[in-house]
Amino acid sequence: MLPITIPGPLYGQDVTVSHLTIYWVGDTTFEAITAVLLRRQIDVCSSSACYATILHDTADHECEDVVHTTGCSLDYDLTSNNKLTADSGILYLTLELAFGSSTSWIEIGGVRLTLEHD
Prior knowledge:
There is one protein chain. This protein is mostly beta strands. The protein has one domain: Jelly Rolls. The chain is 0% helix and 53% strand. It has strands at 2-4, 15-26, 32-41, 51-57, 61-62, 72-77, 83-84, 91-98, 106-117. Strands 1, 3, 4, 5 and 8 form a five-stranded antiparallel beta sheet that branches. Strands 2, 6, 7 and 9 form a four-stranded antiparallel beta sheet that branches. The radius of gyration is 16 Å and the shape is elongated.
């Protein structure tokens, strides 16, 4: 789980998180990103309703480095619960990774968020 701290409103304007791209590559076809979850904090986490889900993808994504020598990207258009306001908390990106052996690997090259103003 990766916390992403973004100021909510910039210059008094709400911000919309409109797109997420994850750049990555894996060792073999047995390594995969099996879940991508992006959430926005909406309350203190003393209850089960402390996050609003922006993205929840549970498809298996494979990117073998021998086949995809420059890596792969996962692209998501974000359309729900994606407005950051003065009351919004930080964003959390959770990646669930699957490995085929104890020596295999997945490299996360970067994560890009696209922010828009109205």
